[in-house]
Amino acid sequence: MTSLIVCALGIEARAVRRGLPPDGVTVLRTGMGPRRAERAAACLPPASAVAVTGFAGALDDGLDPGDVLVASEVRWRDLVVPCPSAPDVAARLDDAGLAVRTGPLITSWYVVTGRDRRAQWGRSGARAADMESGPLAVACEDLPFAVVRVVVDTPASPLLGFATVAHALTARRTLTRIAPVLAAWEARAGGQARAAHADVPRKAEQKEGRP
Fold first, then answer.
1. Phi/psi at 46 (nearest 5 deg)?
2. Which ranges in 4-111 belong to alpha helices (H)?
3. What are 180-205's pLDDT values in tens digits?
4. In the chain, what are the domains?
5. CA-based angle 188:194:200, to the nearest 5?
6. Burial class (CB in 10 A: 0-12, 13-18, 19+), 5
7. For the purposes of burial, counting CB atoms within 10 Å of the CB of 152, is it exposed (0-12), middle (13-18) or buried (19 or more)?
8. Cα–Cα distance between 188 and 64 in angstroms, integer?
């Protein structure tokens, strides 16, 4: 099994591929939106670890364009999927010199725009919104899993504002820097998961008295 990095958009997937070694990590593009993410989640290739990355919109003024949010949990419909890997992934990204934050991420059916709507969602404690991570988080609950999003727009700098293009270019460069960090995390986390899985039958055999 390989490591898997999942993106929604072509621009995100291309930026990620630029930062990756030539083999060992598969980059999957789902297309934009939760329905496409649900379809992709239903037929993910076998993987030892999965990371979702790409762009996101901030819901509070504590995030700036270009900041990296590592999801501590993903909220989707009425579900909350914890991301235990968040502290490890955030520390690795911080060591790489990136501006990293952690916090809850919410997956929406639509692009969240407008200061009032962002504030409404932000009052729930969510720090950013995307449109794909929720279905993927549910599908990967039993795997090492991470969500790392780069902020493109904020309440103070909305989508389709004057600076959107510059922010998108910055975010694209940040995704390229994120990619090798995610690949290194996945290699380690996936290896640990495989070792733990292999150790389960060995312990069962010992319990039954077999050598």
1. -55, 135
2. 10-18, 34-41, 86-95
3. 999 999 999 877 766 665 554 444 44
4. 2-155+163-207 (3.40.50.1580)
5. 135
6. buried
7. buried
8. 30
Dist CA 84 CA 5 (whole Å):
17
In this prediction, residue 167 carries a pLDDT of 80
**Residue 149 binned pLDDT confidence (cut-offs 50, 70, 90):** very high
Tokens of 69: 């949010």
| pLDDT tens, position by position, 48-94 | 999 999 999 999 889 999 999 999 999 999 999 999 999 999 999 99
Amino acid present at 73? E
Q: Would strands 128-130 and 25-29 be described as parallel, antiparallel, or unpaired?
A: unpaired
Q: Is the dihedral of CA 52, 57, 60, 62 positive or negative?
A: positive
Spatial CA neighbour of 6 closest among 134, 113, 152: 134
H-helix or E-strand spanning residue 155: none
